[in-house]
Amino acid sequence: MLTERTKRGDGMICRMSPTFEQLKDPLPLYNPKAIYYRALGFLLETFGRLSRGIDIGFTHGFDSGMIMNYIYDNKPQGSLFVGKYLDRIFLDQVTCKAFRSIKQIQTDMINSYLRERNDENTFIVDLASGKADYLYDILKDSDSNLEVLLCDISESALKESKITAECLKLGSKIRFKQGNALDTGNLRQINPNPDLLIEVGLYGIIHNDELIKRHLSDVKQILDPDAILFNVQTQNPQIELIARSLKNQEGERCVWHLRPIDEVLRWAEEAGFKNPEITMDPFNIYAVVMMRG
Questions:
Q1: 245 vs 37, 40, 200, CA distance in Å?
Q2: Where do the domains of the chain lie, and which CATH numbers do they carry?
Q3: More exposed terminus of the chain, fewer Cβ within 10 Å: N or C?
Q4: Residue 11: is its pLDDT beyond 70?
Q5: Interval 72-94: pLDDT, tens
Q6: Where on the phi/psi map is residue 275: left (φ > 0), alpha (ψ -120 to 50), or beta?
Q7: Contact between residue 234 and residue 265 where contact means Cβ atoms under 8 Å apart
């Protein structure tokens, strides 16, 4: 078992979660827990899809930008009354509440960074943006000289984002680029280098620690941003339910990788980033971090 230590109030809370390796391995076929999660997954993927959110999750993946932005909106939808009722239950899950909390935390961090720059021209790049509606909120409310590049591997997420940009008449401030955040060739095509680089939600779906370490090093060497904003999922009481009942963007089991915040901070510092500012969400699931280049 993996012990995650997170700071809350004046003490330390230790939570026990299955390790990533345990979550990757399927349970024995007739294990009672396996039967339970298999039945739950079946119900969610059939009857549960009356809920708009659950349907989006199974269509695009519960690790996709599409589901994240639906959770951010927090407006229950579904087929018939029962679908809307199921959607409200889905949106009230602790993992969904944590998503919405970190949206506000990262918005506050970005606004603080912009105030620090005192209306200086600022270029923000989000390497795994999804729809990136939190950046639209900032653009609408900001009078600063701000330009944004939204990058994502998902064509559908970027298409939805472009529609939002057009509706809000923000097209002149936003560019879009489809590509893999881990591809160094994709990083080299970004010009100019960003002042603020965002990759919220990226590390939890990368299973290989070495890939994250190498990516942080690539980001520093190729883009050399003034600041970087990311989050780390440190623990989650629903991690096993998600891994054994839900699907990711590839249609496989949605196994997320929990990591101690100190570990990811060490990798970022080894890459050349410094001065971490860390804020935990109220549920102690995610740490949101800004570091300087």
A1: 6, 6, 24
A2: 103-236+256-292 (3.40.50.150)
A3: N
A4: no
A5: 899 999 999 999 999 999 999 99
A6: left
A7: no
Quote the distance between the C-alpha of residue 82 and its chain's center. Answer: 29
Sign of CA dihedral 199, 115, 291, 256: negative
Beta carbons within 8 Å of 258's beta carbon, 6+ residues apart: 2, 4, 17, 20, 204, 233, 234, 235, 236, 239
CA separation for the pair 190, 177 (Å, rounded): 9
Strands (E), the chain: 2-8, 11-17, 122-126, 146-152, 174-178, 196-199, 227-233, 274-280, 286-292
Q: Quick one: tokens of 12?
A: 């330390």
- Beginning with the edge strand found earlier in the chain, give each strand of the sheet holding 274-280 in spatial order: 174-178, 146-152, 122-126, 196-199, 227-233, 286-292, 274-280
pLDDT of residue 283: 95
What pLDDT is recorded for position 89? 97
What is residue 291's DSSP assignment? E
pLDDT (0 to 100) of residue 273: 97
Q: For residue 216, what is the enclosing H or E element?
A: helix 209-218
Query: What residues contact 75, with CB distance under 8 A and at least 6 apart?
Result: none
SS3 48: helix
Q: Can you give the pLDDT at residue 15?
A: 47
